[in-house]
Design brief:
The protein is α/β, with parallel strands linked by helices and 798 residues long. The chain has 26 helices and 25 strands. The strands form 7 sheets. Strands 4, 6, 7, 8, 9, 10, 12 and 16 form an 8-stranded mixed β-sheet that branches. The protein has a 4-stranded mixed β-sheet with strand order 21-18-24-25, covered by helices on one side. Strands 20-19-22-23 form a 4-stranded antiparallel β-sheet, with no helix packed on it. A hairpin with a 2-residue loop joins strand 22 and strand 23. Helix 9 runs parallel beside helix 11.
Length: 798
């Protein structure tokens, strides 16, 4: 069974998507849309022949994460979606390409998640009124739709009003926080441009819960909208919606547009069609509205199988059927034996591309290129700054194959410790200047030591490599040195090494991620690194590791829902990578859900197994490697080198099992969980004691104390708890560790030693007060009062 989230669908129009930090009014300037002969994207044939200027505009709205998503607020709940924001982003990337029309950034508005507020969407709709009659527009909206009760003073009664749910929508105050569907329809009618495409995907299936209302409020809102779209009478505008009135719009984890994760079936099919796979009648390299509508109506039911989804479409003029929506060059004569190559360079400019020896253009950081090619193995070559790289890519009939070109530390995926996703063909450019021979030899020696976890010797060799490179920077050696320094707890040195490497290789997104992680470990300031991580993820959505680091940062902020989403995305991108599962297990143990705490145990077990597999992949003999891989660096040093990773994984499984019991006193056989946890905690203690960084040992001792306390072994609980506090005294980040004080207060109280119980409860309240809610603080103060009374009534003294 394909895992999916059900999303009710209405999607009207074409697709457009753009990333904008603000919505200032755009400058009016002519665009150069993609054209073939006299055919141009968005222009009817008669307009193309007249050579009139056609400007392309787009508004793309996708909300995956809502301000109050997955939270019960006064009996109301909005479920977060998986891929609505990613769908809008994918459409944006295509529209910016020449094949999609070359929409410019001042004419395309992308509003995702926290940017998709009611105010910003209304502002963007007003900007579309700046279009001219000859222009072309696209709107795309993917979110929830819902019917909300509202009193109509004219009718003198309460009516149901259909709304789009936006990021800041409050289900108890929809009139002031959501966008009425009628307002959206009216805004489309008031756009001066005579040609347009309207796409919308409203998502539900028990996704909206409104206090005192049935589960059909979303389904009926969708039905209402589709009826309006079928009756739409805006001349020259095409409408496409995602599913029929009684159906749900689906998201599948195994679909993606080269982004390494899932996608809505409707958007996936739209983009596959626009990339040339809908070009069939005739096969001329031009995809029209009619071709796209027919393709989507055929493709979506094929993909949804046993839970069929049937998109719909409507246009009021015959001429609108022939409006070109994309123009895709290629060398393919038989549409049935064609596929598409989509090539991106998120951080690079001026990379020339050849396919099977034929020049296929130049890619840049802002625009991907799409080419229709015959199926089978295609030979690709890329040239930048006089350096040439070659790869092969297999293209299947009627499908897109994605290729990404980057400047990075990685040189090859062939020897990766954890293989990257197979959905993407990676092409790597490395050093702009080859290192000197002696420097290279010293570097390889350092890599050997690093892989064998002889960290001090590795750093010596990396320093030697840097010195022997004739005064030229050696970014590879700097990056490896930084990771080795992290392994030794030299956090400031690691930050400096990564910064030096990034100053030389500015577009190295892998080093940028390692730097963000190192800066967070040094300063524990989420605001310092979160924007950088989100930027990396936007440019490289197919790489799991920045999602892992972001999840860790959000976890530190106690944004458990945000952390869970980031880590689940990382897990979907690369199921074989253990860090996402490890941190996800920790996140799940902190949520008030028995189901999630049980899931945490499973994630921790999987993480332990994956780390064990990684640790068995001995990457010695560095000179035999076909090329460096970022996975060597991630799993060979820092937090995830063998002993550190295994200690953390063993601890996490023991912690997950222990916390199941701690948070649920209804478990029939709690000792079974606690007994299962003990061997993992003992192994984590053994591994942690041999590590130079003792912070892991502090955390394991605290969990061990809690486990002993829950088992009723009070003496061992007190012993491990006191060891925790003594060891943490030398660590500023863990000093006066609140959890240890709480466990000790409970253990001493159970042991009838109320003097130390009172002292530790006082220290716990003082240390944890900033993080406690008012109700929690009141409870612990009451506990303290009760312990004080027990101390005094038993005449115990300090």
């Amino acid at each position: 069974m394909k895992e999916h989230i059900r999303r009710f669908g209405w999607i009207a129009g074409l697709l457009a998507c753009s990333c904008l930090l603000g919505l200032a009014a755009p400058t009016a300037r002519a665009q150069q849309p993609q054209e073939r002969g006299l055919v141009r994207v968005g222009a009817p044939r008669k307009e193309s022949k007249a050579a009139r200027t056609v400007e392309l505009w787009a508004l793309l709205v996708g909300v995956s994460r809502f301000q109050n998503g997955d939270q019960n607020v006064r009996g109301n709940q909005i479920s977060n979606l998986k891929y609505a924001g990613d769908d809008a982003q994918a459409i944006f990337e295509f529209l910016r390409s020449e094949e999609g029309g070359g929409f410019t950034e001042d004419h395309i508005f992308l509003l995702k998640d926290e940017k998709a507020t009611k105010a910003e969407v209304e502002k963007a709709l007003l900007i579309l009124r700046k279009t001219k009659p000859d222009d072309f527009f696209v709107t795309f909206i993917a979110t929830h739709g819902v019917l909300a009760p509202q009193y109509d003073s004219k009718l003198g009664r309460t009516i149901e009003v259909p709304y789009f749910v936006l990021y800041d929508s409050d289900l108890a105050n929809m009139q002031n926080t959501a966008l009425p569907m009628s307002a959206f329809q009216d805004a489309v009618k008031q756009i001066p441009a005579k040609q347009g495409l309207v796409l919308s995907d409203t998502c539900h299936s028990a996704a909206i819960v409104m206090a005192g209302r049935g589960a059909e409020v979303s389904k009926r809102a969708n039905s209402n909208l589709i009826e309006k779209l079928k009756e739409a009478d805006v001349s020259g505008v095409g409408y496409i919606w995602a599913a029929d009135q009684t159906e749900v719009s689906l998201e599948f984890d195994n679909l993606n547009q080269g982004q390494g994760q899932g996608q809505g079936v409707f958007t996936y099919s739209l983009l596959e069609g626009l990339r040339g796979n809908a070009d069939s009648d005739p096969g001329d390299g031009i995809v029209t509205f009619l071709e796209l509508k027919n393709y989507v109506q055929k493709k979506v039911p094929e993909l949804t199988g046993e839970t069929p989804q049937h998109p719909g479409g409507n246009t009021t003029t015959i001429e609108a059927n022939t409006i070109p929506l994309s123009i895709v060059p290629g060398s393919c004569k038989d549409p049935a034996q064609c596929g598409s190559l989509v090539i991106r360079a998120p951080d690079l400019d001026g990379v020339t591309v050849a396919i099977d020896g034929a020049d296929s253009g130049t890619i840049s950081s802002k625009r991907e290129i799409t080419r229709r090619v015959p199926t089978g193995d295609r030979r690709l070559s890329f040239t930048m700054g006089g350096v040439r790289r070659e790869r092969e890519a297999r293209v299947e009939p009627g499908k897109s194959r994605f290729v990404e070109v980057n400047l990075s530390l990685s040189q090859s995926d062939e020897d990766a410790v954890v293989p990257p996703p197979e959905s993407l063909v990676n092409v790597y450019f490395g050093e702009t200047r080859e290192p000197l021979k002696d420097a290279r030899e010293a570097f390889l020696d350092g890599v050997d030591f690093f892989n064998k976890q002889k960290t001090d010797q590795a750093i010596e060799k990396f320093n030697e490599a840097i010195k022997k490179n004739g005064g030229s920077p050696y970014p590879d050696a700097l990056v490896y040195r930084g990771r080795a320094e992290q392994s030794l707890g030299r956090k400031a040195d690691a930050v400096a090494s990564f910064q030096q490497a990034l100053a030389v290789r500015k577009s190295d997104f892998e080093t940028e991620t390692l730097l963000a992680e190192a800066r967070f470990n040094l300063n524990l300031d989420p605001g310092e690194v979160e924007p950088s991580l989100r930027g990396i993820i936007r440019r490289h959505p197919n790489w799991d590791y920045p999602q892992v680091v972001l999840g860790d940062v959000l976890f530190f902020k106690k944004d458990y829902i945000g952390a869970e989403r980031a880590l689940l995305r990382a897990k979907r991108i690369n199921p074989k990578s253990p860090p996402a599962r490890l941190i996800l297990a920790d996140v799940l143990t902190h949520q008030d859900s028995k189901q999630k705490r049980e899931q945490a145990v499973k994630e921790a077990r999987d993480a332990l197994e994956l780390f064990a597999t990684v640790s068995q992949k001995k990457v010695s003999a560095s000179r035999s490697l076909k090329g460096l891989s970022i996975s060597h660096l991630i799993f060979g040093g820092g937090r995830y080198r063998n002993d550190a990773a295994m200690a953390e994984a063993q601890h996490m499984l023991g912690k997950a099992l222990t916390r199941v019991v701690y948070f649920d006193d209804t478990i029939a056989n709690p000792d079974s969980y606690l007994d299962q946890a003990r061997p993992y905690l003992n192994e984590a203690l053994r591994l942690s004691q041999g590590m130079s960084d003792k912070s892991r040992l502090v955390l394991v001792l605290e969990t061990s104390a809690l486990n002993y306390f829950l088992k009723g072994d009070l003496l061992h609980a007190i012993d491990d708890g006191e060891k925790t506090l003594k060891l943490s005294e030398s660590m500023p980040a863990l000093k006066n560790f609140p959890n240890a004080h709480l466990t000790l207060a409970q253990a001493y109280a159970s042991n009838q030693r109320f003097v130390p119980a009172v002292e530790h409860m006082q220290k716990y309240i003082a240390a944890a007060k900033p993080q406690l809610t008012a109700d929690e603080l009141k409870k612990y103060q009451e506990d303290l009062s009760q312990l004080t009374k027990m101390r005094d009534s038993n005449r115990q003294k300090k």
